[in-house]
Design a protein that fits this description.
Blueprint: H1 2-6, E1 8-13, H2 24-32, E2 35-38, H3 49-64, E3 69-74, H4 77-88, E4 93-99, H5 107-112, H6 116-127, H7 136-139, E5 146-152, H8 158-162, H9 174-177, E6 184-188, H10 199-211, H11 220-227
Parallel strand pairs: 1-2, 1-3, 3-4, 4-5, 5-6
Length: 246
C-alpha cells in the first residue's frame, strides 16, 4: 500500500493524426524509470479540441488513480492538456513536458486552411490551430503548472518551413512552442513527426519529470546510454558518457 501511495503516473497524449502507438518508446522508458503509464488514443481528426479533451483527459487521469498526474504530450496533445487545465484547474497536474506544441498556433494552418484536402486531413481540431482571431491555443491561459517544452529545429518538409518564421521542426516554429509561465525551454535537432522517439528527447523528458528541469549537459550518446540502463557509462569502461561527442 505504501508503494502504491508513492507511485507516480504519467499520461502520454499523442498529436494530430497520430495514435497512441507513437509513444511506445516513451512508455517503455518511463515504465523502466518507475512510472505508471496511461497512453490513451483519441480520434484527433474527428472533433474540436474541446470535445476531444472531454473524451480523453478525465478518463486518462482517473485511470492513473494518483493525486498528482504527470504528462508528456506531443504537438496538439499539449493543447488538449491546456484546454483541460483551463476547464478544471491545475491542481491535479504534477509536471508536464510538451514536445513541439503549437502553443501560439501554426502559420501553416493560416496559409492552407482554405485547401479542401488540408481541412479533410486535419479535421476540426486541426483547423483551430491557426494564429489568427480564431486560434484556440492563443485563447487559452498561460501555464500555471510545472511545464517544460522541447522544440525541434530540423524539418522534413522544406515547403512548410518556408511558411514558418525562424527555426522550426517542419510543422511548428520554435517561437510558437513557447508559453508564458513555462519553467524551462529546450531546443534539440529533431523533427516534429518523430521527436518523441529520439533518445535525447526521451531522456530529457524523464529528467524534467524527475527534477523540474532539463539537463543541459546531456549529449545524444549519453541519452542513448541512459536508455540502455548505464547513464554513467559503467557498461563501457574508459568512456565518459557526458564528455562524448553527440
Amino acid at each position: 500500500m505504501a508503494g502504491a501511495a508513492q507511485a507516480r503516473c504519467v499520461v502520454l497524449l499523442h498529436g494530430l493524426a497520430r495514435t497512441e502507438t507513437s509513444f511506445a518508446l516513451m512508455e517503455a522508458a518511463l515504465e523502466a524509470e518507475g512510472w505508471l503509464v496511461v497512453r490513451p488514443g483519441y480520434p484527433s481528426t474527428e472533433a474540436p479540441i474541446e470535445e476531444l479533451t472531454l473524451q480523453t483527459l478525465p478518463a486518462a487521469v482517473a485511470a492513473c488513480g494518483t493525486a498528482k498526474v504527470d504528462f508528456v504530450t506531443h504537438s496538439m496533445g499539449g493543447i488538449l492538456l491546456r484546454q483541460w487545465v483551463a476547464d478544471v484547474g491545475p491542481e491535479r497536474v504534477g509536471r508536464a513536458v510538451m514536445l513541439g506544441p503549437p502553443n501560439q498556433g501554426s502559420e501553416i494552418v493560416d496559409e492552407l486552411r482554405d485547401v479542401v484536402a488540408f481541412d479533410w486531413i486535419n479535421g476540426p481540431a486541426g483547423m483551430q490551430m491557426g494564429t489568427g482571431p480564431t486560434s484556440l491555443p492563443r485563447s487559452l491561459p498561460d501555464a500555471n503548472f510545472e511545464l517544460g517544452v522541447i522544440a525541434g529545429t530540423q524539418s522534413l518538409n522544406p515547403y512548410f518551413s518556408t511558411l514558418l518564421p525562424g527555426d522550426d521542426d517542419g510543422k511548428v516554429s520554435v517561437a510558437s512552442t513557447r508559453l508564458n509561465g513555462m519553467r524551462a525551454h529546450l531546443t534539440l535537432p529533431v523533427t516534429h513527426t518523430f521527436m518523441m522517439n529520439n533518445p535525447q528527447v526521451i531522456s530529457q523528458a524523464v529528467a524534467f519529470l524527475r527534477t523540474g528541469r532539463f539537463d543541459p549537459e546531456m549529449t545524444f550518446f549519453g541519452a542513448v546510454m541512459q536508455q540502455f540502463g548505464c547513464p554513467d557509462g559503467d557498461c563501457l569502461p574508459g568512456i565518459e558518457v557526458f564528455d562524448a561527442k553527440p
